[in-house]
Specification:
This protein is α/β, with parallel strands linked by helices and 202 residues long. Helices cover 31% and strands 16% of the residues. Pathway: Amino-acid biosynthesis; L-cysteine biosynthesis; L-cysteine from L-serine: step 1/2.
Length: 202
Amino acid sequence: MSVGRRLLARVREDVAAARAHDPAARSALVVVLSYPGVHAVWLYRVAHRWWRAPGLRLPARLLSQFARFLTGVEIHPGARIGRRLFIDHGMGVVIGETAVIGDDVMLYHAVTLGGKSSRREKRHPTLGDRVTVGAGATILGPVVIGSDSSVGAGAVVVKDAPAGSVLVGIPARDVAHATPGASGPRDSLTDPAFYLDPAIYI
């Protein structure tokens, strides 16, 4: 497959992911023209290619800052992001340099994937596939969030979490695995607004 066809296929994937996650996405054209989270991901992918090319790290950083100005989303070009990331609303999202994000991840607005160290090391989170992170949630340090996990709005995550976790509160606790053998509440959650309220689990 040529580079152009591969690029077009990725664009179509991103648009399809946005439409699958957001019922307000009435058409592909609406997504292409008016979704800042999608625009931020597209600009990140260009910046990331530049970041990995010899001598282009400064242009990569400048492009990432331009993307931040346009979209309100700051993604360091050194981050590693899988396919079909969807950032809903977008404003205030920050993704650090050593963050790693799997496929089919969804981030709501004001999510921070931040670091706790000033050393040049792996200092930002790793999210597995199909992870959902609610509005205003903060995940700090080189923690690993397993695939198929959900992080509630406003949660502050500072520890690793296994696959299928539901993380709520400050500091976040895993309510899906709180009882040995329990399947957790995640299967019954169809509306993110439901599990984003930690008070539900108290």
